[in-house]
Structure formats: structure tokens, C-alpha cells
Amino acid sequence: MKKNRILDKNQIVVACLFFICVLLIFTIFFISNRTIPAAQDTQSCVTREDVAEAYAFLGQDEAVESVLSGSSSDKVFTYGEYREFLKQLHLWEAGNFEGFLDWDDRKDEGVSPDVLSESRDVVAELFETRAAEQEQREEPPVAETKPSVPQVDENTKIRVLLLQNGMPVANEIRFSANETYSISWGKKTKEKKKNQVICAGQLKLAVGESAVVQSEKGEVYLADEQGDRDTLGYTGSFRITRYEDGYAVVNEVKIEDYLYGVVQSEMPAYFEEEALKAQAVCARTYIVTQLMQDNYPQYEADVDDSVRFQVYNKAAPDTRVVKAVDATRGQILTKDGLPINAYFFSTSHGVTSGREIWGLSELDYLQPVRGNKDTDMPDLSDEETFRAYIRESDADDYDAPSSYYRWKATLDISDHLSDVKTLLRGIDEIQPECVIIRDDRGQQTTAAVMDGWKEVQQLKVLERSSTGAVLRLLIVFSDGEVELSNENYIRQVLGVWMDKLQDKDGSPVKSGDMLPSVYFYVQPIKEGIVLFGGGLGHGIGMSQYGANGLAKQGADMKAILEFYYKDICLEQLYCEDIT
Predict the structure, then answer these.
(1) What is the pTM of this model?
(2) DSSP per residue over 195-236, as a string?
């Protein structure tokens, strides 16, 4: 009897162990079924890499990878994670996903390839429809016989792209204001204390999203990495937008407030009042013409704040500048009812030019003028005539007080060869008609051949305009040559080699990245090459130092403008009650 009782106990233990094993197997099977459906194994589920590949067509790799990095598994991508992925990219609400609403019930299941393909097609169709609508919106209207001046008033806002170290975007943007300010993005609006620095990254903007920063009582400004103020204050607002490669900042500001920052940055505030007023009219005319263009559609901006358009907000407005802008409020220059191209520049060498130095057609109101009381225009197209002219100076020239009226630049053509080649290749890609490349046999060839060229041997002026501008410059290399045209490109290339720059009195001046002008002649010396020249800037339209010289002799704003722009009208766009 005792032995049987022992056997009964062993049987009970075995039975219990068997029951526990069965329970564990059932539990494991049940849990695994909650993650992967019965007819589905890990081999039939998509991964994060599959999702990234499926949505590569968006062109938003950075945003896609950022969202995917938050998923829990490297092997199986669940419906819950997929739905969150679409929501964070702002695709769920925009797409028609009514047929996928059962995802909530299957949030822990792995997504099947068929579902990924079907949902991806929904998003693709959405984007194709938007692209078609955009193309239809951008179809150019039927051209009128005479385009009209854009509707501009004192409340018109200019959208200025603020370049970051010369680039449209930056990896990070830091901003603040000198008074309390607000940040609005999505459905959020937050108030911030004055001088509290915020990083754009803190806003967690998705690619394509924007935030608006503004201060009702103060001005917004940009800050550096240490949080210190890095720019002057800006009126209006900042629109900060995230792109694939960083953040862009656009200052939206009323046209007259914009001009305060432009005139001060473009012309010294100590210049004569009538010269400042002439500058204000030119700057206003220029920005009105830019409103008729489409300069920065990708950043939704009209202009940037560099010399490519008009230098903006690089110096605080002086009271004299504010007075000049206010005195000309709403006034622009027109020809036949349209705003003119009111080009202006710093200093002439005694004569201004037409648009031939850019290879563009002439405009009848942009005729070359002699910058002094002598109305006789010299013909400076001959090399020897120009050399004799530029070696002399005329105290009667309106531009004579400028340090850049005459200058001397020393070039070191033995240095920076790779930089020059890179620049020439870039110009060749953008505007190939301005770069003609020939091999050592004189045959025209491609930019790739320059890779093997070892040194520069000579610079030679091939053609000069009647106003003395170098139109075509020959750069002779050891194994070939490059014929370069266009005022801007010539100045850029020679600026790379510029080792030293001296003003009209022989004093050293900061050389910058560009040659002062294309009004020069080439003089080889033992140590390299010297350029003797005159003027600062492109030389087309109104000379700012010339305008100041005219004002010193009693010319008013209207007389100055009519001196540099022929047969134009001074038109009042708004504020007709100016006294």
C-alpha cells in the first residue's frame, strides 16, 4: 500500500509538469499570434528599410529617416508604427485612407507588402494630382501688349531671403527680439520674453513647415551659437521654413521700412541730402521691378539681402536716411508707364556704361554719360587710348573724391590655380557662352581638359567697350587658353588671384573677393601682373559718388536722376499728398 501511494504522488507530479508545459506552449503561441497573424510570418512583413524605399519618391530622405528611427523593431514594421509614420509626415490627413481604418485593430501586427504598396499608391496619386494642379496654376497668362505696373502701396510687403554665410539655408537658426515676441507654427502660438534665444530645431518643424516670428513692439534679430545678437533688428516678421538641407529665413517687411535698411546699406549716410533722395528713388524703383519677377520661388521670396539684389539691413538707419526715404515716399522712375531698370553702383572712372558689358541688349534710358561738366564722350575702346586715359585723373570728375576712382591691383597668377579652374567650370555650367575653352592646338574643347593644365602664363584684353570696360579677356595657360566674357565673371576670376589692392593715393585697401571693376589694363611685371584701373562696381546707371558730386554742385534729386537716366518720368505710385 505504501508503494502505491508513492507511485500516485509521482504520477501527480508528472501530470502537473505536463500541464505546465502545455500551458507555456499555449501562452507562447497566443502571444506570437498577437504580433504576427496566423497566415503571416516575419518573412512576409515589411521592414523599416522597405518603408524608406517605398517613400523615396517624396524626395524627403532626411524627414523619412528621422521618423523611421523612432520605430521599435528593425525586422517588422507594425501597422501602428506605419500609421504614426504617415501622420508625422502629414500624409495621413491629406491622403484618402478610408479603406485602411482597421489598422487600429491591427496596430501590433506586421504590415504586409500588399498594404504598403496600396497605401504608397494613395500618397503617390495625391502628389501627382498636386503637381498637375501646380503646373496648371503656373501656366503663363496670355501676354499683354504692354505689362502693367504691379499694384503697390505703402502696405505692400517685400519678402527678403536673409542669406546665412552667403547661402539660402543653414543647419540651424537662432533668433530672438529686443521686446516680447511670439512664435506661431501649426496650431501653436507661444509668447517669449525679450532677448530669449530660441533655436529653430526646438520647434520640431517637418520638412515644408514654417514658423512665423514677430514682435509687435520691437524688432526680431538673429543670434549666434553663443546666443549673442548676430544682426541688426528687423521690422516686420520672420518666416522660418524647414527644407531638406536646413532652415531658410525670410523677412516680410513693408516696402518703405525695407528701404530704410537698403539706402543706409547702399549709400553713406553723410552724403548730400539730394543724393540720398536720388538713391531712395532708385532703390524703390528697383524693388518694384523685382516684384514683377520670380526670383526665389522655392523659398517664396522676392529678393535676398546681398549685392545680387540690394544690400539690406547691414547698417542701422541714420536720421538723414530716414528723412530722404520719407521725402520721396512712393516715388519711382518710369518709362512708357513701366518702372525702369534703375541700376546703380558705387564709383565710375569718369564714364558710365550701358548693358553691353553683360552681353545684354541696350536700353535707351541707360546711355553712357561723362561724369563731369565736359559733355564730350571719349571713345576708350582702343587699348592705348584707354591706358593713357586711366593713368590720368580729372579733378572735375564727380567721382574723383572716391578712393576707388583710380586703383592698382597686384595679381599672383601662380597661386590658387585649382580655385580658378573650379570657378571657370562653374561658369561654364551656368553660362557656357561666357567661357570658350581651347586646347594647345587652338581647338575649342570642354572644361574637363583644364584638369591637366599646370600654370597660367598671360592675361590679355581681347576686346574693350567704348567706355573702357573689358568685354573679353584671354587667360593663357601652359596647355590651352580660356576666353572669358561678362563683367561679373571677369571680376570674380581675377578676384581669386588678387593679392594686393591700392586706392588712388597708393594706400592699401581691403581687396574683397572681386576685382573692383572691369575698367583696367594689364601690365606684366617681374613678380606677376598688375592691373591699373578705375571705378567700383559694374558701371551701369547711376554712380553713387557721382550723384553726391552733382549734389555738391547744387543739383537736386530730379536733376541727378535725369543726368543718369535719359527721358524718364518721376511717378508717384502712392502717398500723393507728399509735401
Answers:
(1) 0.71
(2) T--EEGGGG-PPTT-EEEEE-SSS-EEEE-TTS-B-S--BSS
